[in-house]
Amino acid sequence: MGNIVFITGATSGFGRAAARRFAAAGWSLVLSGRRLERLQALQEELQGKVPVHIAALDVRDAEAVRQVVAALPEGFRQVRALINNAGLALAPQPAQQVALEDWHTMIDTNVTGLVNVTHALLPTLIASGQGASIVNLGSVAGHWPYPGGHVYGATKAFVEQFGYNLRCDLLGTGVRVTDIAPGMAETEFTLVRTKGDQAASDRLYRGTTPLTAEDIAEQIFYVASLPAHININRLEVMPTRQAWQPFAVDRD
Ligand SMILES: NC(=O)c1ccc[n+]([C@@H]2O[C@H](COP(=O)([O-])OP(=O)(O)OC[C@H]3O[C@@H](n4cnc5c(N)ncnc54)[C@H](OP(=O)(O)O)[C@@H]3O)[C@@H](O)[C@H]2O)c1
Fold first, then answer.
1. In this structure, which residue's CA is closest to atom 31 in ligand 1?
2. Residue nearest to ligand 1 atom 30, measured at CA
3. Does ligand 1 have an atom closer than 6 angstroms to the CB of 109?
4. How far apart are CA 55 and CA 228, in angstroms?
5. Backbone angles phi and psi of 136, in degrees to 5
6. Residue ranges per domain, the chain?
7. Which of 180, 68, 59, 146 shows the shortest CA–CA distance to 110?
8. For the residues 119-132, what does the mean pLDDT come to?
9. Per the CB 3.0–4.6 Å rule, which of 28, 150, 172, 241 could disulfide with 51?
10. Closest CA to 159 of 143, 140, 179, 185
11. What backbone phi and psi angles, to 5 degrees, belong to 234?
12. What is the pTM of this model?
């Protein structure tokens, strides 16, 4: 039987590009996300090449996650790679202007959702053994503070530390864990963050060269397809045209 990858957030951006990248290498796909019609379109596109199972899923719902994993059909059960990609940023404003609900949504999705899926698939990945992978989508926002990063950056710091701690507990099982931390990448990310402001999204990416979804999909595929004895702990990837600025100083 071929390799099977389980991707969360496969309806857009990195997740959708990763589905195409794994399919190109012959992996069977389990694709999830909330937007069923997008999952169906991707299934339609890829199922001539590889077996594709889709599951409409909100990762924040632990019971729904458990049911999706329990109901994986024959041929999709021995998941070899989990791509914990579903996530979002909201509220680019300063912390003191943000609705508490937006903070909760980021924590519920990026932290609780990611642990829900990981918990449900750990037994399967451990059974898969040597060369199985968990690839978590962190962010440079989890390493570097910036204005408006508040809870989003903190959720991605959680993702990174959770991955390192998982590695300790999974030592000896053969299961690898990687934190991929992208910088600026053009996907629907900013559209979601600004609650549908296409002009703001276009402005952010205009005049520079952001990463593409395909760039990150390539990195995801790379870490999951390395020889079984290699674990990339953390892969931070930025566009060449993005860097840091000096410390900010408040002056009279
Ligand atoms: N783009 C960047 O600059 C960037 C940089 C660093 C890290 N990241 C991280 O990379 C990951 C993918 O982001 P992207 O840039 O590809 O953004 P995107 O194009 O907006 O894709 C996000 C995906 O997450 C899914 N998702 C969101 N909430 C969900 C929920 N509650 N349950 C299930 N799926 C959910 C969305 O699917 P549905 O809406 O259909 O559910 C969508 O498929 C995220 O974790 C993000 O934080 C992005």
1. 58
2. 58
3. yes
4. 28
5. -100, 135
6. 4-237
7. 59
8. 98
9. 28
10. 179
11. -150, 135
12. 0.98
